Each structure stands twice: as structure tokens, then as C-alpha cells.
Amino acid sequence: MAAESAQTLERGLRLLRLLADGKGGRTPTELSGELSLSRPVVYRLLTTLMNEGFVRRDAEGRVHLGFGVLVLAQAVQPLLRAAALPTLRRLAEEVGATAHLTVAEGDDGLAVAVVEPSWTDMHVAYREGARHPLAKGAAGQAILALRGGRDNYDDYFVTEGQLQEGARGVAAPVTGLPWLEASVGVVTFGPLEESTGPRVVAAAAELSAALG
Length: 212
Hints:
The chain contains six helices and eight strands, in the order αααββαβββαβββα. By secondary structure, the protein is of the alpha+beta class. The strands form two sheets. The protein has a six-stranded antiparallel β-sheet. The chain has a two-stranded antiparallel sheet with strand order 1-2.
């Protein structure tokens, strides 16, 4: 019974991950094919997940993630913030710029953790909870690269004036975590040293290892 229960749980998690890939809803038949499971098994999984609010079906019968997943996502954000703060604090102090962790929420980036340097005379005030389109700013570009399949540990992105006039941003994707679309970055009004990009990449790798 324990092995059967574990297999059922594993299948249910696979189904949820499939629906979370951003490609839209699926029919039960499509889910059956993509998961290599029989339709009766898929229907049993869907019934349980629908009862718990983790999936829903639209008027055309296609299956989507349900709003119950949002409750879990909201609970994860404080954990991400706590895990990221030591890394961001070191990065902010090393670079002398405001450091942040940004996660994807649909087509937007959400700043879930922000640390300002303690020793600079002036730095960018960037608040936790700030939201912006992924298409704008270094943090969003890093996430879009990750979403597009670029998983290069040396990649970082640089932008200027896209989110705030005069502000420069550098960000790198947090790679190696299939369940997370996120980037680590810094933003400043002043000049940035050439070493800033590699330092941001190292911080993203450090956070990935901490969360992995």
C-alpha cells in the first residue's frame, strides 16, 4: 500500500508540473499521452486534485492549474526570502548596490527579497513586492532567458534606464531548479565594476545550491 500511495503521489506531482509549464490547459486525453498513463488513471488523479482545488476544468473540458496552488505559492515566498537574504546581503556589500531576488509570476517579475548596501552614500530604493514586466529590466531578461531554455551558468544581463531613469541593472538566472523561475540581480545609479556581472552569477549559483 505504501508503494502504491507513493506512486500515486508521484503521478499527481508530475501532472501538476506538466500543467505549470506555461503552455496552457490540456484535455485529459492529452495528459494521458504526455504522462504515459491510462485515461482511467488520469481521471482518478484529476478527481482528487479538483476536489482539493489544485486543478480546474474550463468550459471546453481542458484542465488548468487551480487556485489552490496559489496558497502553496504564497507560503513558499517567505521561505525563498529567508534562503536568499544571506546571499543578497553579501552581494550588496561586495558590489555596493541594491541586491534583489526576482521570481516570475506569469509575464511579470516580482521582487521577493531586497537588500540595500550599508556603506554607500546613495543607492536605489527598490521595495519588496515591486512588480514589472519580464520584458523590461535585467532581472526579467534573465528569467526570460531561463524560460527560453538557456541554462548557461555564466550568463548575465545588463540594462540601463528600463525600469527607472538613470538606473543600471545586472542580473543572472537562478539555474538548475526546474520548479523555480528566478534571477538574482543588483541595481544602482552609479557605475558598476567589470567584476559585477561575475559576482552576480556567483550569487545566483550560490542561491541555487542552497535551494537545491
